[in-house]
Design a protein that fits this description.
Elements (H helix, E strand, L loop, with lengths): L14 E3 L38 E7 L3 H12 L4 E4 L11 E4 L2 E4 L5 E2 L3 H6 L2 H4 L1 E3 L3 E6 L2 E6 L5 H6 L8 H15 L3 H5 L6 H8 L3 H16 L8 H13 L2 E4 L5 H8 L6 E2 L4 E5 L10 E4 L4 E10 L3 H7 L17 E11 L11 E3 L6 E6 H4 L8 E9 L7 H16 L1 H4 L3 E12 L13 E3 L2 E3 L9 H24 L1
Parallel strand pairs: 1-19, 2-3, 2-14, 3-11, 8-16, 14-21
Antiparallel strand pairs: 4-5, 6-10, 7-10, 8-9, 12-13, 13-14, 15-18, 15-19, 16-17, 17-18, 20-21
Protein name: Amine oxidase domain-containing protein
Pfam families: Amino_oxidase (PF01593)
GO molecular function: oxidoreductase activity
Protein backbone atom coordinates (compact mmCIF):
# COMPACT_ATOMS: atom_id res chain seq x y z
CA UNK A 1 0.00 0.00 0.00
CA UNK A 2 1.30 3.46 -0.72
CA UNK A 3 1.22 6.27 1.72
CA UNK A 4 -0.47 8.96 -0.34
CA UNK A 5 -1.72 7.37 -3.54
CA UNK A 6 -4.22 9.25 -5.64
CA UNK A 7 -6.16 7.30 -8.22
CA UNK A 8 -7.09 9.64 -11.06
CA UNK A 9 -7.93 6.70 -13.27
CA UNK A 10 -10.65 5.50 -10.90
CA UNK A 11 -14.05 6.99 -10.30
CA UNK A 12 -14.02 8.46 -6.80
CA UNK A 13 -17.49 7.09 -6.19
CA UNK A 14 -16.99 3.47 -7.14
CA UNK A 15 -13.93 1.29 -6.82
CA UNK A 16 -13.88 -2.46 -7.25
CA UNK A 17 -10.73 -4.03 -5.86
CA UNK A 18 -9.41 -7.49 -6.60
CA UNK A 19 -5.87 -7.38 -5.31
CA UNK A 20 -3.17 -9.95 -4.86
CA UNK A 21 0.36 -10.38 -3.63
CA UNK A 22 2.89 -12.73 -5.19
CA UNK A 23 6.11 -14.37 -4.10
CA UNK A 24 8.23 -17.12 -5.72
CA UNK A 25 11.59 -18.65 -4.77
CA UNK A 26 13.84 -21.19 -6.52
CA UNK A 27 17.17 -22.71 -5.47
CA UNK A 28 20.47 -23.30 -7.25
CA UNK A 29 23.34 -25.62 -6.42
CA UNK A 30 25.31 -23.18 -4.32
CA UNK A 31 24.08 -20.99 -1.51
CA UNK A 32 26.10 -17.89 -2.44
CA UNK A 33 26.17 -16.15 -5.76
CA UNK A 34 29.13 -14.36 -7.22
CA UNK A 35 28.27 -10.66 -7.29
CA UNK A 36 28.82 -10.38 -11.03
CA UNK A 37 26.31 -13.16 -11.65
CA UNK A 38 23.54 -11.46 -9.75
CA UNK A 39 21.15 -8.73 -10.67
CA UNK A 40 22.64 -5.25 -10.28
CA UNK A 41 20.42 -3.27 -7.94
CA UNK A 42 20.16 -0.06 -9.90
CA UNK A 43 18.44 2.97 -8.40
CA UNK A 44 16.60 3.26 -11.71
CA UNK A 45 14.86 -0.08 -12.26
CA UNK A 46 13.61 -0.79 -15.76
CA UNK A 47 10.04 0.06 -16.56
CA UNK A 48 7.72 -2.63 -17.81
CA UNK A 49 7.98 -1.42 -21.40
CA UNK A 50 11.75 -1.82 -21.51
CA UNK A 51 13.52 -4.88 -22.77
CA UNK A 52 15.70 -5.30 -19.77
CA UNK A 53 19.23 -6.54 -19.28
CA UNK A 54 18.12 -7.32 -15.73
CA UNK A 55 17.46 -10.87 -16.83
CA UNK A 56 19.00 -12.83 -13.97
CA UNK A 57 19.09 -12.60 -10.20
CA UNK A 58 19.35 -14.80 -7.12
CA UNK A 59 15.78 -14.99 -5.84
CA UNK A 60 12.72 -13.55 -7.54
CA UNK A 61 9.82 -12.62 -5.28
CA UNK A 62 6.47 -12.12 -7.00
CA UNK A 63 4.21 -9.64 -5.29
CA UNK A 64 4.98 -6.72 -2.97
CA UNK A 65 2.19 -7.23 -0.44
CA UNK A 66 3.04 -7.90 3.19
CA UNK A 67 4.12 -11.50 2.53
CA UNK A 68 6.38 -10.59 -0.38
CA UNK A 69 7.85 -7.63 1.50
CA UNK A 70 8.57 -9.84 4.50
CA UNK A 71 10.28 -12.40 2.24
CA UNK A 72 12.36 -9.65 0.62
CA UNK A 73 13.26 -8.25 4.04
CA UNK A 74 14.59 -11.63 5.21
CA UNK A 75 16.50 -12.19 1.95
CA UNK A 76 18.06 -8.75 2.31
CA UNK A 77 19.09 -9.47 5.91
CA UNK A 78 20.90 -12.60 4.65
CA UNK A 79 22.62 -10.62 1.86
CA UNK A 80 20.94 -12.81 -0.75
CA UNK A 81 20.41 -11.02 -4.10
CA UNK A 82 16.74 -10.69 -4.96
CA UNK A 83 14.28 -8.88 -7.18
CA UNK A 84 10.76 -8.07 -6.00
CA UNK A 85 8.18 -7.87 -8.80
CA UNK A 86 4.91 -6.01 -8.27
CA UNK A 87 2.07 -5.91 -10.80
CA UNK A 88 0.71 -2.57 -9.58
CA UNK A 89 2.32 0.83 -9.08
CA UNK A 90 3.11 0.54 -5.35
CA UNK A 91 3.78 -1.87 -2.51
CA UNK A 92 1.08 -3.18 -0.19
CA UNK A 93 -1.15 -5.64 -2.06
CA UNK A 94 -4.43 -5.51 -0.17
CA UNK A 95 -2.94 -3.10 2.38
CA UNK A 96 -3.27 0.20 0.55
CA UNK A 97 -4.34 3.76 1.30
CA UNK A 98 -5.69 6.31 -1.17
CA UNK A 99 -5.48 10.09 -0.80
CA UNK A 100 -8.63 12.00 -1.74
CA UNK A 101 -9.42 15.65 -1.02
CA UNK A 102 -7.20 15.69 2.06
CA UNK A 103 -8.57 12.38 3.40
CA UNK A 104 -6.71 9.11 3.90
CA UNK A 105 -8.91 6.23 2.72
CA UNK A 106 -7.70 2.75 3.64
CA UNK A 107 -8.94 0.22 1.13
CA UNK A 108 -11.41 -1.56 3.34
CA UNK A 109 -11.77 -1.98 7.10
CA UNK A 110 -8.25 -2.64 8.33
CA UNK A 111 -7.02 -2.26 11.90
CA UNK A 112 -3.52 -3.06 13.11
CA UNK A 113 -3.12 -4.91 16.44
CA UNK A 114 0.07 -3.82 18.19
CA UNK A 115 0.61 -7.21 19.87
CA UNK A 116 1.15 -9.08 16.60
CA UNK A 117 4.40 -10.95 17.44
CA UNK A 118 5.96 -11.05 13.96
CA UNK A 119 5.10 -7.42 13.31
CA UNK A 120 6.90 -6.43 16.51
CA UNK A 121 10.10 -7.95 15.10
CA UNK A 122 9.88 -6.31 11.65
CA UNK A 123 8.27 -2.92 12.16
CA UNK A 124 9.29 0.32 13.85
CA UNK A 125 6.12 1.19 15.75
CA UNK A 126 7.40 4.60 16.82
CA UNK A 127 8.00 5.62 13.20
CA UNK A 128 4.48 4.45 12.29
CA UNK A 129 3.09 6.89 14.87
CA UNK A 130 0.31 4.49 15.80
CA UNK A 131 -2.98 6.05 16.89
CA UNK A 132 -4.93 3.81 19.27
CA UNK A 133 -8.58 2.89 19.48
CA UNK A 134 -10.45 2.63 22.76
CA UNK A 135 -9.96 -0.95 23.99
CA UNK A 136 -13.55 -2.07 23.67
CA UNK A 137 -16.54 -1.00 21.62
CA UNK A 138 -19.86 0.80 21.56
CA UNK A 139 -22.63 -1.64 20.62
CA UNK A 140 -25.87 -0.44 19.03
CA UNK A 141 -28.74 -2.46 20.42
CA UNK A 142 -32.40 -1.72 21.11
CA UNK A 143 -32.07 1.84 19.87
CA UNK A 144 -29.18 2.72 22.19
CA UNK A 145 -25.39 2.53 22.36
CA UNK A 146 -23.85 0.37 25.09
CA UNK A 147 -20.20 0.12 26.17
CA UNK A 148 -18.24 -3.13 26.13
CA UNK A 149 -14.77 -2.60 27.62
CA UNK A 150 -11.61 -4.68 27.91
CA UNK A 151 -11.33 -5.30 31.68
CA UNK A 152 -7.53 -5.34 31.46
CA UNK A 153 -7.45 -1.81 30.00
CA UNK A 154 -10.63 -0.10 31.24
CA UNK A 155 -11.51 -1.79 34.51
CA UNK A 156 -14.00 0.80 35.74
CA UNK A 157 -15.74 1.05 32.37
CA UNK A 158 -15.97 -2.71 32.37
CA UNK A 159 -17.40 -2.68 35.89
CA UNK A 160 -19.94 -0.01 35.00
CA UNK A 161 -21.09 -2.03 31.98
CA UNK A 162 -21.87 -5.19 33.93
CA UNK A 163 -25.59 -4.45 33.98
CA UNK A 164 -26.00 -3.43 30.33
CA UNK A 165 -27.96 -5.72 27.98
CA UNK A 166 -24.90 -6.81 25.94
CA UNK A 167 -24.68 -10.16 27.66
CA UNK A 168 -25.19 -11.35 31.21
CA UNK A 169 -22.90 -11.01 34.22
CA UNK A 170 -21.80 -14.59 33.57
CA UNK A 171 -20.92 -13.66 29.97
CA UNK A 172 -18.65 -10.88 31.19
CA UNK A 173 -16.94 -13.20 33.67
CA UNK A 174 -16.48 -15.71 30.86
CA UNK A 175 -14.75 -13.04 28.75
CA UNK A 176 -12.26 -12.52 31.59
CA UNK A 177 -11.66 -16.27 31.94
CA UNK A 178 -11.27 -16.59 28.17
CA UNK A 179 -8.55 -13.92 28.27
CA UNK A 180 -6.71 -15.96 30.90
CA UNK A 181 -7.16 -19.14 28.81
CA UNK A 182 -5.53 -17.72 25.67
CA UNK A 183 -2.76 -15.93 27.59
CA UNK A 184 -1.60 -19.24 29.06
CA UNK A 185 -1.04 -20.70 25.56
CA UNK A 186 1.88 -20.06 23.21
CA UNK A 187 1.10 -18.86 19.69
CA UNK A 188 2.25 -22.21 18.29
CA UNK A 189 -0.05 -24.08 20.67
CA UNK A 190 -2.95 -21.94 19.52
CA UNK A 191 -2.43 -22.35 15.77
CA UNK A 192 -1.86 -26.12 16.03
CA UNK A 193 -4.59 -26.86 18.60
CA UNK A 194 -7.74 -28.82 17.93
CA UNK A 195 -10.16 -26.59 16.06
CA UNK A 196 -13.88 -26.07 15.72
CA UNK A 197 -15.86 -23.18 14.22
CA UNK A 198 -15.68 -20.06 16.40
CA UNK A 199 -19.44 -20.10 16.94
CA UNK A 200 -19.18 -23.63 18.37
CA UNK A 201 -16.31 -22.58 20.65
CA UNK A 202 -18.34 -19.67 22.01
CA UNK A 203 -21.33 -21.89 22.73
CA UNK A 204 -19.13 -24.62 24.23
CA UNK A 205 -17.55 -21.99 26.51
CA UNK A 206 -21.01 -21.11 27.79
CA UNK A 207 -21.59 -17.69 26.27
CA UNK A 208 -25.25 -16.74 25.96
CA UNK A 209 -27.02 -16.15 22.68
CA UNK A 210 -27.38 -12.48 23.61
CA UNK A 211 -23.64 -11.73 23.83
CA UNK A 212 -22.90 -13.88 20.80
CA UNK A 213 -25.43 -11.96 18.71
CA UNK A 214 -24.85 -8.52 20.18
CA UNK A 215 -21.04 -8.52 20.55
CA UNK A 216 -19.09 -11.49 19.17
CA UNK A 217 -20.98 -11.72 15.87
CA UNK A 218 -20.57 -8.04 14.91
CA UNK A 219 -17.06 -7.68 16.37
CA UNK A 220 -15.31 -10.85 15.22
CA UNK A 221 -17.61 -11.17 12.23
CA UNK A 222 -16.24 -7.80 11.14
CA UNK A 223 -12.66 -8.97 11.67
CA UNK A 224 -13.17 -12.25 9.79
CA UNK A 225 -15.74 -10.84 7.30
CA UNK A 226 -17.79 -13.82 8.46
CA UNK A 227 -21.24 -13.12 9.93
CA UNK A 228 -21.84 -16.77 10.79
CA UNK A 229 -18.59 -17.06 12.80
CA UNK A 230 -17.64 -20.28 11.03
CA UNK A 231 -13.95 -19.26 11.02
CA UNK A 232 -11.53 -21.58 12.83
CA UNK A 233 -11.29 -21.28 16.61
CA UNK A 234 -7.51 -21.18 16.07
CA UNK A 235 -7.81 -17.81 14.40
CA UNK A 236 -10.27 -16.58 17.03
CA UNK A 237 -7.93 -17.55 19.88
CA UNK A 238 -4.90 -15.96 18.20
CA UNK A 239 -6.67 -12.65 17.62
CA UNK A 240 -8.32 -12.75 21.05
CA UNK A 241 -4.87 -13.14 22.62
CA UNK A 242 -3.41 -10.28 20.56
CA UNK A 243 -6.34 -8.05 21.52
CA UNK A 244 -5.78 -8.86 25.20
CA UNK A 245 -2.07 -8.01 24.98
CA UNK A 246 -2.15 -5.04 22.61
CA UNK A 247 -4.15 -2.20 21.15
CA UNK A 248 -6.13 -1.71 17.98
CA UNK A 249 -4.40 1.08 16.10
CA UNK A 250 -4.00 2.97 12.84
CA UNK A 251 -0.73 4.45 11.56
CA UNK A 252 -1.03 8.24 11.41
CA UNK A 253 -0.30 8.18 7.65
CA UNK A 254 -2.75 5.40 6.80
CA UNK A 255 -2.60 1.63 6.90
CA UNK A 256 -0.34 1.82 3.82
CA UNK A 257 2.45 3.11 6.04
CA UNK A 258 3.06 -0.47 7.21
CA UNK A 259 4.11 -1.98 3.85
CA UNK A 260 5.67 1.35 2.87
CA UNK A 261 8.01 1.13 5.85
CA UNK A 262 9.09 -2.37 4.84
CA UNK A 263 9.57 -1.34 1.20
CA UNK A 264 11.63 1.72 2.12
CA UNK A 265 14.16 -0.47 3.94
CA UNK A 266 14.90 -2.57 0.84
CA UNK A 267 17.84 -1.71 -1.46
CA UNK A 268 17.15 0.97 -4.09
CA UNK A 269 16.03 -0.57 -7.37
CA UNK A 270 15.18 -3.96 -5.84
CA UNK A 271 11.43 -3.51 -6.51
CA UNK A 272 10.07 -3.50 -10.07
CA UNK A 273 6.59 -1.99 -10.29
CA UNK A 274 4.06 -2.48 -13.11
CA UNK A 275 5.67 -5.89 -13.69
CA UNK A 276 3.00 -8.56 -13.83
CA UNK A 277 4.19 -12.18 -14.02
CA UNK A 278 2.08 -14.30 -16.37
CA UNK A 279 3.95 -17.63 -16.26
CA UNK A 280 6.68 -19.63 -14.56
CA UNK A 281 8.66 -21.82 -16.94
CA UNK A 282 11.27 -24.54 -16.65
CA UNK A 283 13.64 -24.80 -19.59
CA UNK A 284 14.47 -28.42 -19.05
CA UNK A 285 14.36 -30.99 -16.28
CA UNK A 286 12.74 -29.25 -13.34
CA UNK A 287 15.24 -30.68 -10.89
CA UNK A 288 18.22 -29.28 -12.83
CA UNK A 289 17.08 -26.00 -14.34
CA UNK A 290 16.06 -22.92 -12.35
CA UNK A 291 12.71 -21.45 -13.34
CA UNK A 292 12.27 -18.39 -15.48
CA UNK A 293 9.43 -15.91 -15.31
CA UNK A 294 7.64 -14.33 -18.22
CA UNK A 295 6.21 -10.87 -17.66
CA UNK A 296 3.09 -9.46 -19.29
CA UNK A 297 5.25 -7.20 -21.49
CA UNK A 298 7.18 -10.21 -22.83
CA UNK A 299 10.34 -9.82 -20.75
CA UNK A 300 11.84 -13.01 -19.33
CA UNK A 301 13.63 -13.09 -15.98
CA UNK A 302 15.58 -16.05 -14.62
CA UNK A 303 16.20 -16.87 -10.99
CA UNK A 304 19.44 -18.51 -9.90
CA UNK A 305 18.29 -19.53 -6.43
CA UNK A 306 14.53 -19.74 -6.51
CA UNK A 307 11.14 -18.12 -6.89
CA UNK A 308 8.79 -17.09 -4.06
CA UNK A 309 5.15 -16.56 -5.00
CA UNK A 310 3.42 -14.08 -2.68
CA UNK A 311 0.09 -13.55 -4.39
CA UNK A 312 -3.46 -14.35 -3.35
CA UNK A 313 -4.25 -18.05 -3.50
CA UNK A 314 -6.29 -18.01 -6.76
CA UNK A 315 -3.50 -16.14 -8.57
CA UNK A 316 -0.83 -18.40 -7.09
CA UNK A 317 -2.66 -21.46 -8.39
CA UNK A 318 -2.77 -19.97 -11.90
CA UNK A 319 0.99 -19.40 -11.88
CA UNK A 320 1.66 -22.87 -10.48
CA UNK A 321 -0.53 -24.58 -13.05
CA UNK A 322 2.37 -25.61 -15.31
CA UNK A 323 4.64 -27.08 -12.63
CA UNK A 324 5.16 -30.83 -12.95
CA UNK A 325 5.03 -32.94 -10.88
CA UNK A 326 2.26 -31.07 -9.09
CA UNK A 327 2.76 -30.88 -5.33
CA UNK A 328 1.15 -27.46 -5.59
CA UNK A 329 -1.56 -26.44 -3.09
CA UNK A 330 -5.05 -27.71 -3.86
CA UNK A 331 -7.70 -25.10 -4.61
CA UNK A 332 -9.68 -24.05 -1.56
CA UNK A 333 -13.34 -24.84 -2.33
CA UNK A 334 -14.53 -22.44 0.38
CA UNK A 335 -15.65 -19.01 -0.88
CA UNK A 336 -13.28 -16.15 -0.09
CA UNK A 337 -14.31 -13.36 2.28
CA UNK A 338 -15.62 -10.17 0.71
CA UNK A 339 -16.54 -6.75 2.03
CA UNK A 340 -17.75 -3.29 1.11
CA UNK A 341 -16.35 -0.19 2.79
CA UNK A 342 -17.97 3.23 2.47
CA UNK A 343 -16.41 6.54 3.44
CA UNK A 344 -18.19 9.76 4.34
CA UNK A 345 -17.02 13.21 5.40
CA UNK A 346 -18.58 15.68 7.80
CA UNK A 347 -17.66 18.86 9.63
CA UNK A 348 -15.73 17.94 12.77
CA UNK A 349 -18.08 20.09 14.79
CA UNK A 350 -20.94 17.80 13.69
CA UNK A 351 -19.40 14.55 14.94
CA UNK A 352 -21.70 13.13 17.65
CA UNK A 353 -18.88 11.50 19.68
CA UNK A 354 -15.26 12.36 20.36
CA UNK A 355 -13.92 9.01 21.59
CA UNK A 356 -11.71 6.84 19.32
CA UNK A 357 -14.10 3.93 19.56
CA UNK A 358 -15.39 1.24 17.19
CA UNK A 359 -19.19 1.05 16.85
CA UNK A 360 -20.76 -2.38 16.36
CA UNK A 361 -24.19 -3.31 15.06
CA UNK A 362 -25.56 -5.60 17.76
CA UNK A 363 -29.17 -5.20 16.70
CA UNK A 364 -29.24 -8.23 14.43
CA UNK A 365 -30.83 -6.02 11.77
CA UNK A 366 -29.59 -3.96 8.85
CA UNK A 367 -26.49 -4.22 6.68
CA UNK A 368 -23.89 -2.25 8.65
CA UNK A 369 -21.35 -4.46 10.43
CA UNK A 370 -19.30 -1.76 12.13
CA UNK A 371 -18.31 1.88 11.74
CA UNK A 372 -16.03 4.44 13.33
CA UNK A 373 -15.03 8.06 13.08
CA UNK A 374 -11.52 7.60 11.71
CA UNK A 375 -10.46 11.15 12.53
CA UNK A 376 -11.35 10.52 16.20
CA UNK A 377 -8.70 7.77 16.16
CA UNK A 378 -6.18 9.49 13.89
CA UNK A 379 -6.87 13.20 13.26
CA UNK A 380 -4.41 13.04 10.33
CA UNK A 381 -6.95 10.96 8.36
CA UNK A 382 -8.73 14.15 7.33
CA UNK A 383 -8.34 17.91 6.86
CA UNK A 384 -8.26 19.90 10.13
CA UNK A 385 -11.92 20.93 9.92
CA UNK A 386 -13.33 17.67 8.52
CA UNK A 387 -14.21 14.29 10.00
CA UNK A 388 -13.82 10.97 8.18
CA UNK A 389 -16.41 8.25 8.76
CA UNK A 390 -15.68 4.61 7.82
CA UNK A 391 -18.54 2.11 7.47
CA UNK A 392 -17.94 -1.60 6.88
CA UNK A 393 -20.32 -4.21 5.46
CA UNK A 394 -19.82 -7.97 5.14
CA UNK A 395 -20.29 -9.35 1.61
CA UNK A 396 -20.29 -7.74 -1.82
CA UNK A 397 -23.96 -6.71 -2.22
CA UNK A 398 -23.76 -7.27 -5.99
CA UNK A 399 -27.49 -6.74 -6.34
CA UNK A 400 -27.30 -3.17 -5.02
CA UNK A 401 -25.89 -0.16 -6.81
CA UNK A 402 -23.44 2.13 -5.02
CA UNK A 403 -26.15 4.78 -4.87
CA UNK A 404 -28.70 2.46 -3.25
CA UNK A 405 -26.08 1.04 -0.87
CA UNK A 406 -25.10 4.53 0.26
CA UNK A 407 -28.75 5.49 0.82
CA UNK A 408 -29.36 2.33 2.85
CA UNK A 409 -26.31 2.97 5.06
CA UNK A 410 -27.29 6.61 5.65
CA UNK A 411 -30.82 5.59 6.62
CA UNK A 412 -29.57 2.87 8.96
CA UNK A 413 -27.01 5.06 10.74
CA UNK A 414 -29.59 7.81 11.10
CA UNK A 415 -31.19 5.48 13.62
CA UNK A 416 -27.91 5.32 15.55
CA UNK A 417 -26.95 9.00 15.65
CA UNK A 418 -30.03 10.92 14.52
CA UNK A 419 -31.21 11.89 11.06
CA UNK A 420 -30.29 15.62 11.37
CA UNK A 421 -26.63 14.66 11.90
CA UNK A 422 -26.25 11.82 9.39
CA UNK A 423 -28.02 13.56 6.50
CA UNK A 424 -25.20 16.13 6.48
CA UNK A 425 -22.58 13.47 5.74
CA UNK A 426 -21.06 13.60 2.25
CA UNK A 427 -20.28 10.30 0.53
CA UNK A 428 -16.63 10.14 -0.54
CA UNK A 429 -15.99 6.69 -1.97
CA UNK A 430 -17.17 3.09 -1.96
CA UNK A 431 -14.78 0.14 -2.10
CA UNK A 432 -16.09 -3.30 -3.05
CA UNK A 433 -13.33 -5.74 -2.19
CA UNK A 434 -13.68 -9.12 -3.87
CA UNK A 435 -10.81 -10.74 -1.98
CA UNK A 436 -10.64 -9.34 1.54
CA UNK A 437 -9.39 -12.53 3.21
CA UNK A 438 -9.04 -16.22 2.52
CA UNK A 439 -11.74 -18.38 4.06
CA UNK A 440 -10.33 -20.09 7.16
CA UNK A 441 -13.20 -22.29 8.29
CA UNK A 442 -12.15 -25.70 9.66
CA UNK A 443 -10.34 -27.73 8.64
CA UNK A 444 -7.30 -25.47 8.42
CA UNK A 445 -3.57 -25.99 8.42
CA UNK A 446 -1.87 -22.80 9.58
CA UNK A 447 1.60 -24.37 9.33
CA UNK A 448 1.58 -25.30 5.62
CA UNK A 449 4.86 -26.19 3.92
CA UNK A 450 5.79 -23.25 1.64
CA UNK A 451 7.73 -25.48 -0.78
CA UNK A 452 5.58 -26.46 -3.75
CA UNK A 453 8.21 -27.58 -6.24
CA UNK A 454 11.92 -27.60 -6.92
CA UNK A 455 13.03 -24.05 -6.18
CA UNK A 456 9.45 -22.74 -6.00
CA UNK A 457 7.86 -21.54 -2.76
CA UNK A 458 4.63 -19.80 -1.80
CA UNK A 459 3.69 -17.39 0.94
CA UNK A 460 0.62 -15.42 1.91
CA UNK A 461 -1.95 -15.22 4.68
CA UNK A 462 -3.85 -18.20 3.25
CA UNK A 463 -0.92 -20.41 4.31
CA UNK A 464 -0.89 -19.16 7.90
CA UNK A 465 -3.40 -16.99 9.76
CA UNK A 466 -5.54 -14.54 7.79
CA UNK A 467 -4.00 -11.55 9.58
CA UNK A 468 -1.30 -8.95 8.95
CA UNK A 469 0.91 -11.06 11.18
CA UNK A 470 0.18 -14.27 9.28
CA UNK A 471 1.27 -12.66 6.02
CA UNK A 472 4.56 -11.53 7.59
CA UNK A 473 5.17 -14.96 9.11
CA UNK A 474 4.55 -16.69 5.78
CA UNK A 475 7.18 -14.53 4.04
CA UNK A 476 9.77 -15.50 6.62
CA UNK A 477 8.88 -19.19 6.39
CA UNK A 478 9.24 -19.19 2.61
CA UNK A 479 12.78 -17.81 2.89
CA UNK A 480 13.66 -20.28 5.65
CA UNK A 481 12.48 -23.15 3.44
CA UNK A 482 14.53 -21.85 0.51
CA UNK A 483 17.66 -21.59 2.68
CA UNK A 484 17.17 -25.11 4.06
CA UNK A 485 16.96 -26.43 0.51
CA UNK A 486 20.06 -24.50 -0.51
CA UNK A 487 22.06 -25.88 2.39
CA UNK A 488 20.84 -29.39 1.62
CA UNK A 489 21.70 -28.95 -2.07
CA UNK A 490 25.19 -27.65 -1.36
CA UNK A 491 25.92 -30.50 1.07
CA UNK A 492 24.78 -33.14 -1.40
Amino acid sequence: MTLFLSLPQLSPQNIHIHTHTHTHTHHHRSLRLKPQASLPLSSNPPQSNQSSSYSKTGVIVIGAGLAGLAAATHLNSQNIPFLLLEASDAVGGRVRTDFLDGFLLDRGFQIFITAYPEAQKLLNYQALNLQKFYSGAQVYYDGKLHTVANPLRHFWDSLNSLQNPIGSLLDKLLIASNIIRVLTKSDEEIITSNEIPTIDLLRKTGFSDSIVGRFFRPFFGGIFFDKELETSSRLFDFIFKCLALGDNALPANGIAAIPQQLGDKLPPGSILFNSKVVSIDFDGSESESPPSLRLENGDVLRSELGVIIAVEEPEALKLLGEIKPKPKPKPNPKPVRTTVCLYFSADRTQVPVREPVLFLNGSGKGIVSNMFFATNVAPSYGPPDKALISVSLIGMFEDMSDYDLTAEVVQELSGWFGEPIVRLWRHLRTYRIGYAQPNQCPPTDLMKNPRVGSGVYVCGDYLTSATFDGALVSGRRAVEALLRDRVSSSVS
